[in-house]
Amino acid sequence: MSDTDLTTSGFNDTIHAPNRLRICALLDRGEEVEFAVVQKQLGVSASVLSKHVSVLVNAGYVRQHRAVRDTRQRVWLSLTDEGRAAYRAHIAALRAIVEGKA
Amino acid sequence: MEREQNTSPQLTPEQAQAALRDVEQTRSSYYSELNPWWTTLVFAAFLCGMPLAAFFDVNWTAIAVLGGPLGLGALLWASRRTGPNTELRFGALQYTLLAVGTLVVIGGMASGHFLAPTHGAWVWLPVIVTNGAVALGIDLILRRKARKAA
């Protein structure tokens, strides 16, 4: 990664907010993650998670879809291409701050 | 679309580092949930069980034939907890580790099979160690990679 890539221009306040960064980190690992799994990993209530997910969905970073598993309807979350790019740019921006390239 | 993007963040390096650490911890925890430690144990037990059986002059092919499906079943049961479409992405590293690990295990088992009759059962001991190292080594490498923020 060149120095020009390691800039803070990718810093994203929407993603950086508490829990939303962790949501993006979780979703970046796999294609889709169940809402309940994300909730468990973050250790927050469903309503709190819903609020953060809504912000990310409105920003175009996350998509959600409903699927049936074990006869129950569940919600699955995934990063959009834009969301993944924004998350990775944000991580690069954080690294740039840490490395003093800000 | 609401979107906030700053070009001048006010974070200190310490705050940025804390955020990155938080991300790594989250990813590490999630990876551990998808890949509980006992799944690695299943792999290691299976890979070490075969040469161990050969060392004690027990027919290891029985372990291979029975242990394979049993172990696979256990792993599939573990994976169903995560549901559809939560499998991790297989990238170049994962494919490389899988290929190298497979070659090492097959090479070790073949070596043991051909050398044991002439050199004695002790030739299986390094195969046991190597196979165990393959299972644990791959697991450690993937867990370490999983911690990386992006």
From TrEMBL, chain A:
Highest taxon above the source species: Bacteria
Domain Winged helix DNA-binding: 20-98
SUPFAM superfamilies: Winged helix' DNA-binding domain
Short name of one Pfam family: HTH_34
Name listed for the protein in its UniProt record: MarR family transcriptional regulator
UniProtKB/TrEMBL annotation, chain B:
Superkingdom per UniProt: Bacteria
The entry's keywords: Membrane, Transmembrane, Transmembrane helix
Segments crossing the lipid bilayer: 37-54, 60-78, 90-115, 121-142
Name listed for the protein in its UniProt record: Uncharacterized protein
